[in-house]
Design brief:
The protein is 29% helix and 32% strand. By secondary structure, it is α+β, with helices and mostly antiparallel strands. It has one domain. A hairpin with a 5-residue loop joins strand 2 and strand 3. It is globular, with a radius of gyration of 18 Å. The N and C termini lie far apart (42 Å).
Length: 168
């Protein structure tokens, strides 16, 4: 079996869709295809396979560490990231392939998770807040910080903009 992952939409209502495609033909000469309803456990296993197959293992480990945080993780009352934020970030990580700079995940003191990109003095971030808000940020030593709200539909475009900024 070959597992293909597609992310037609990344939002709170739509999980990543996975399709198992058999390389063998069925008796009627067409490929045996199915798109099963996915349980949370199955989805988690599929995401782990995707990370392992795509070089995302360090990011998966960072996300696992963040997933284990509890409220007041920073000693100043910061809320732990919600399950929804962790799920959304898991689904969004494959889109980071558009950004060639180093990528890291950091918990937010306001509650959420940020995907951070940096190269030399240029930094870009996309923060997924527990409130459901997504905010992008870019800055460098030579420029003032620029922030903007991001819809989940525009995430790919936002990551490309951050790539262009960080690449200089």
């Amino acid at each position: 079996m070959i597992f293909h992952a597609t992310l037609p939409q990344i939002n709170g209502n739509t999980a990543a869709q996975y399709q198992s495609v058999s390389s063998a033909s069925s008796s009627n000469g067409t490929a045996d295809r199915f798109d099963p309803q996915i349980s949370i456990d199955n989805l988690s296993q599929q995401i782990q396979r995707l990370f392992a197959d795509s070089g995302f293992e360090p990011l998966r480990r960072q996300l696992d560490e963040i997933r284990g945080l509890s409220d007041d993780w920073d000693g100043s009352g910061a809320p732990a990231p919600t399950f929804q934020v962790i799920s959304t970030v898991s689904e969004a990580l494959p889109l980071t392939q558009f950004v060639s700079s180093p990528v890291s995940l950091v918990p937010s003191a306001e509650g959420g998770v940020a995907i951070s990109f940096s190269r030399y003095d240029r930094v870009g971030q996309v923060e997924f807040a527990n409130t459901g808000e997504i905010v992008a940020l870019t800055y460098s030593d030579d420029s003032d910080p620029i922030t903007w709200n991001v819809s989940i539909r525009d995430l790919r475009k936002t990551l490309k903009s951050i790539r262009d900024f960080v690449s200089g």
